[in-house]
Amino acid sequence: MKIFINSDDFKQIAKKTKEKLIDLAKSHDIEITDDIKDCDIIFSIGGDGTLLKTSRLADEKPIIGINTGTLGYLTEINPENIENALDDIVNGNYTTEERMMLEGEIIKPSGEAIEIPESLNEIAISKNTFGVVRFDAIVNGKIINSYTADGILVCTPTGSTAYNLSCGGPIVDPTAEIITLTPIAPHTVINRSIILSDESIVDIKITELRDETTSFVLYDGLPVEIFSGDTLRIRKSKKVTKIIKLEDRSFIDTIRENIS
What we know:
By secondary structure, the protein is of the alpha+beta class. It has 2 domains: 2-93, Rossmann fold; 101-238, Tumour Suppressor Smad4, CATH 2.60.200.30. 18% of the residues lie in helices and 42% in strands. The protein is built from 5 helices and 16 strands. The protein has helices spanning 12-27, 48-57, 82-90, 163-166, 251-258; strands at 2-7, 31-32, 41-46, 63-67, 95-107, 113-119, 122-127, 133-139, 142-149, 151-155, 178-184, 194-197, 202-209, 215-219, 222-226, 231-245. It is elongated and about 60 Å long.
């Protein structure tokens, strides 16, 4: 078996955990490769943010997360349980969940398209520290609503417990196949999320950026500036993220432990 390690080396605990994993891998006759395309399993050491970065590199290789961050909705094991986790993996005592991803592009008024990479949590529009964004939310060619807001989230079920949750959006089983639209601080009485089929094509058309307001497309937190007249088009990606599950712990168990 070959494994690839992607680690948040800015944190000392992640560095120590990586060193421990390397030592344990040697004792289990597990090869560590520097080529992610050559591995069987990817270990992501850090928080949920590190696993999001890993998901864009994985090319559908199965990922297991070691949590050296905070909440750890996506990460499966704690550093002290690495040895047991390796035993389970070597013996095939695990399952794999497939999580849907989103992809898209920014379409300029000229027709030029700027690709937005696959995202496991969400693709969002957000503004800078002041002003508002005016935009139309369009699904399958039909306008749902025109918003004046701080932005909007288009998220996967996995992303429901991230920024979406902070904005009052619903908690969704991460293995579901839906798309959720959640406005960010909308200037309207109607501020509810909208649940869509995973076959939906979502267009967010920027109609106005007032004064010095700047706006960005955020794909799992990474920014690309967007301008008035641009349209962000989002759809379900053909790619998925495969998450290794070791413990007999359900989505409900995770919610109960982390949101209380």
